[in-house]
Amino acid sequence: MDEPPGETKALMFSSFLPLPFRILLLVQLGVTLWFMLNLLLYNLSSSINILQLLNLSYTKHNYAQLDNHVLSSGEFATTIPADRKENLRLIKGIWATLRSISIFNFVCWLIFKGLQYYGKDLKMIYYSILLVSFTHLFYKLFYKTAATPGQIRVFTTMKRILCGSINSRSMRANDILISDSLVSFGKVLNDFALFVWCYCIGEASAYDFRLEFVVLCIPIFIRIKQCWYEYSITQKPQHLLNLVKYSTGFGPLVVNSLIKNRLLSSSAEERDSGDLIQHLTNLNHWWYFLSALNSIYSFIWDIKMDWHLQLFNKVINPREKFSVLRPYKAYPNIVYILAISIDFLLRFIWVLKLFIINEELRSDTKISYLHIFSTFLFGYDVYSFGYHIIEILEIFRRWVWCFIKLESDWVQLKYEDRAVFALNELVKDENNKST
Fold first, then answer.
1. What's the CA gap between 84 and 49, in Å, rounded?
2. Which of 86, 112, 247, 383 has an alpha carbon 20 to 30 Å from 286's alpha carbon atom?
3. Which long-range contacts (CB under 8 A, 24 or more apart) does 158-164 make?
4. Pick from 286, 288, 280, 287: which is nearest to 262 by CA?
5. Distance from the first to the final alpha carbon of the chain
6. Which residues have CB under 8 Å from 188's CB, separation 6+?
7. Residue 357 and residue 371: Cα distance in Å, rounded?
8. Max CA separation in the chain (angstroms)
9. Cα 179 from chain centroid?
10. Would you put residue 38 in left (φ > 0), alpha (ψ -120 to 50) or beta?
11. Long-range CB contacts (< 8 A, 24+ apart) of 44-48?
12. 3-state SS class at 244
């Protein structure tokens, strides 16, 4: 692909790692973090069983819906929890997939760069290599094969999620992990749409901001539909509040589209008179306000509802005693403090947009490092290295979220098991007394 024009050309990043290979790298990063997550949870904790949380097993006898002649299907949840040692099989399977796509993508990148260097008129071959790379990636990650129940589970889960459905009865943790991760991969999904646009329409034609808006909204729409479904069957207000949380993500996207539309439709008179600047300034104020609303709501939800920590309990109920964490934990306190700090910083990293170097500051010899760093992250377009860093940071933030989320779900599961056990023992005692 040709190097994009403009200031980002000077960064040489797009020349070294073209947009399609950046997409492949980000998806590969997601698989790497999922592998590390399972490896850490298995080795650092002697109790957490990921397969039990996902209601997945590699032993078909753990599925009550099946008989001895039918292989286990990802559409089913286990009724007998998987043995913790089965997680090693999950880890080995993820590692095999990661190794395969890493080697294949690297070889395709080498071929691509070689052809790009020696063959100036072989654009169709360039795109053929890219299509082969994406096909291999989708096949290894999402294609339904009879190899393992894990691969079948990924296929059926993705099919269910892309339709906006959720199995909240027996696979809620399974579906939520993928659905929320898809939200964090929203920019990567948009990058893929941009790649398809360049392939079908041409690089000379500007990417339609309306298509960009639709693509970025897809993961949010999926979660909203899932929240509404859970609310409709349970009538629990927490699902409605979760729906509102995801709805706040539309605000910045709408304002961003209005800004781009205004820039494209403005006349020379408006630019000369200053009306355009004033209108864009007002839209920017709305963007900051709506982004703050979304970040604050989402951060509180992460801490209170997803991680079940007690940092905001006193805010919600002033009578409660102030506490940051929770009584039952699987990790040292420092792990949760770091997770809270990382989630906060990356939820509000957009604040750095306030410090982007503008035209007036460019002529000033005293430009702070904060302005330079902010401009590096947010001052360029989708082809820049800074934009890529923002995508990596969001994927990393989601990994931290998953790390504490799984631990929280496990603690909740064990706590419920203990409560049920205690209730059963109490009932037995009462029965013994009555007899």
1. 5
2. 383
3. 161/222, 161/226, 162/222, 164/221, 164/222, 164/225, 164/226, 164/229
4. 280
5. 82
6. 23, 26, 27, 391
7. 6
8. 93
9. 8
10. alpha
11. 44/331, 45/330, 45/331, 45/407, 47/330, 47/410, 47/414, 48/330, 48/406, 48/407, 48/410
12. helix
Calculate ∠ Cα 85-37-102, nearest 5°. Answer: 100
Tell me what pLDDT residue 422 has: 43
The residue to which tokens 């696979």 are assigned? 171
Q: Which residues of the chain have pLDDT under 70?
A: 1-12, 46, 65-74, 119-123, 144-147, 269-273, 358-365, 416-435
Query: How far is residue 306 from each of residues 151, 176, 249, 403, 408, measured CA to CA in Å?
Result: 26, 11, 18, 11, 8
Per-residue three-class SS string for 378-398: HCCCCCCHHHHHHHHHHHHHH
Angstrom distance (rounded) from CA 257 to CA 400: 30
Per-position b or e across 207-233, b if 16+ CB within 10 A of its CB: bebeebbebbbbbbebbbbbbebbbee
Ranges of H-type helices in 77-208: 86-118, 123-142, 149-162, 172-184, 186-200
| Angstrom distance (rounded) from CA 377 to CA 394 | 13
What are phi and psi for residue 144, nearest 5 degrees?
-80, 115
Instruction: Tell me how long the chain is.
Output: 435
Residue that has been written with the tokens 């590692």 in this structure: 95
- Tokens representing 383? 């082809």
H helices of 172-321, in order, are: 172-184, 186-200, 209-234, 237-247, 250-265, 268-273, 275-301, 313-316
Q: What percent of the chain has pLDDT over 70?
A: 85
Contacts of 26 (CB under 8 A, 6+ apart): 185, 188, 191, 388, 391, 392, 395
- Residue 419 to residue 422: CA distance in whole angstroms: 5
Residues 6+ apart with CB under 8 A from 120: none
Look-up: residue for tokens 């796509």? 101
Burial of 429: CB neighbours in 10 Å, binned 0-12, 13-18, 19+: exposed
Q: Give the integer Cα–Cα distance in Å for 354 and 366.
A: 17
User: Tell me: the pLDDT tens digits for 311-325?
Assistant: 888 787 778 788 888
Quick one: which of 258, 314, 316, 262 has its CA closest to 290?
Answer: 258
Measured CA to CA, the distance from residue 221 to residue 414 in angstroms comes to: 32
